[in-house]
């Protein structure tokens, strides 16, 4: 075999070896990246699970504090006062709080005058407020007759929607998004002010938002179905709040509504739960610690 042929074969072998080395390097790099992605996903999942557990701990803690809600403030460091209090637990800082559900206007019980007054308090145009008021009333009533400016099945179908008015009381505040004339921005403003889980006795003005109080004061006399409370009622339903700042700086929130007339093995019956609420209570400035078990 000539020297030229031997050199050619050696060159080809060297080239193949180099290609194998490059291929192995690319595979190793890809494997390393995949492992890093998997590790990041696992850590992210662990962080999410830990955050959910902390939020649940905050909810359960505030549920336990409802047992002391009738005591003087000196004997109740975690009052139901419509504010968030900083709670130190197991090396973490959470904001927890509670308020009576009677702080909100029951969207299923409020009359048309009060609904319109609330929409006007949110700086909505009067014509639009009147139309949305009628649309809400049409959505929750049992008949198929539209109000003067409302909307029933034919109106929803004509606008291209697959279904018409529900014709029953709203099951949740999020359902308002389906009502004709409701915009996402307006729903975000309205959601913290109303409820579908009222205490059946009206709104407690001591806890109500300014817009709700303004609506109650400016609307016509309340109907027999509900009334503004002027005394100190015995509340049964409470909304519990918890907030947690994640490692990334995002604020994680949760709130639930419980009915204290129905105790359970874990506290009280939960009648509503919002895993990602877009609102919360104002914060206090005093930090309170609670040692981990």
Strand order of the largest sheet: 7-6-5-2-1-8
Mean pLDDT comes to 81
Rg over C-alpha atoms, rounded to the nearest angstrom: 29 Å
What's the number of structural domains?
Answer: 2
- Level-2 CATH architecture of the largest domain: Orthogonal Bundle
Q: What's the CATH H-level superfamily name of the largest domain? A: EpsJ-like
Question: Element order, helices and strands?
Answer: HEEEHHHHEHEEEE
Strand content: 15-25%
Can you count the beta strands?
Answer: 8
And the CATH topology of the largest domain?
Ribonucleotide Reductase Protein R1, domain 1
Q: Figure out the total of helices.
A: 6
Largest beta sheet, briefly? 6 strands, mixed
Q: What top-tier CATH class of the largest domain fits best?
A: Mainly Alpha
Q: Helix/strand/pairing class, anyone?
A: alpha/beta
Low-confidence stretches: 222-232, 289-293
Shape: flat
Calculate the terminal CA-CA distance, rounded to whole Å.
84 Å
* Helical proportion, percent range: 25-40%
Please outline the helices and strands.
Blueprint lengths: L2 H63 L18 E6 L2 E9 L4 E2 L5 H10 L4 H15 L12 H6 L25 H7 L3 E2 L14 H9 L18 E9 L5 E14 L2 E8 L8 E7 L4
Parallel strand pairs: 1-8, 3-4
Antiparallel strand pairs: 1-2, 2-5, 5-6, 6-7
Helix pairs in contact: 2-3, 2-6
């Amino acid at each position: 075999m000539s020297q030229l042929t031997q050199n050619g074969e050696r060159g080809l072998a060297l080239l193949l070896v180099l290609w194998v080395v490059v291929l192995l390097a690319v595979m190793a790099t890809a494997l390393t990246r995949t492992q890093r992605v998997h590790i990041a996903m696992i850590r992210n999942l662990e962080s999410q699970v830990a955050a959910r557990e902390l939020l649940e701990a905050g909810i359960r803690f505030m549920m336990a504090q409802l047992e002391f809600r009738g005591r003087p403030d000196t004997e109740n460091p975690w009052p139901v006062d419509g504010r968030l209090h900083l709670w130190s637990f197991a090396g973490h800082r959470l904001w927890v709080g509670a308020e009576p559900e009677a702080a909100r206007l029951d969207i299923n019980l409020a009359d048309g005058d009060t609904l319109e007054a609330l929409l006007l308090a949110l700086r909505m145009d009067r014509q639009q407020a009147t139309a949305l008021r009628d649309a809400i009333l049409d959505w929750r009533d049992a008949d198929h007759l539209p109000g003067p400016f409302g909307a029933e099945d034919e109106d929803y179908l004509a606008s291209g929607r697959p279904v018409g008015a529900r014709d029953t009381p709203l099951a949740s505040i999020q359902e308002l998004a389906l009502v004709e004339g409701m915009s996402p921005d307006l729903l975000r403003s309205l959601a913290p002010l109303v409820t579908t889980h009222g205490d059946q006795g009206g709104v407690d003005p001591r806890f109500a938002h300014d817009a709700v109080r303004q609506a109650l004061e400016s609307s016509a006399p309340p109907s027999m179905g509900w009334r503004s409370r002027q005394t100190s009622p015995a509340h049964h339903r409470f909304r519990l709040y918890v907030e947690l700042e994640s490692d990334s700086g995002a604020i994680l929130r949760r709130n639930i509504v419980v009915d204290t007339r129905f105790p359970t093995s874990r506290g009280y019956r939960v009648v509503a739960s919002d895993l990602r609420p877009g609102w919360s209570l104002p914060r206090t400035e005093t930090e309170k610690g609670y040692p981990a078990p």
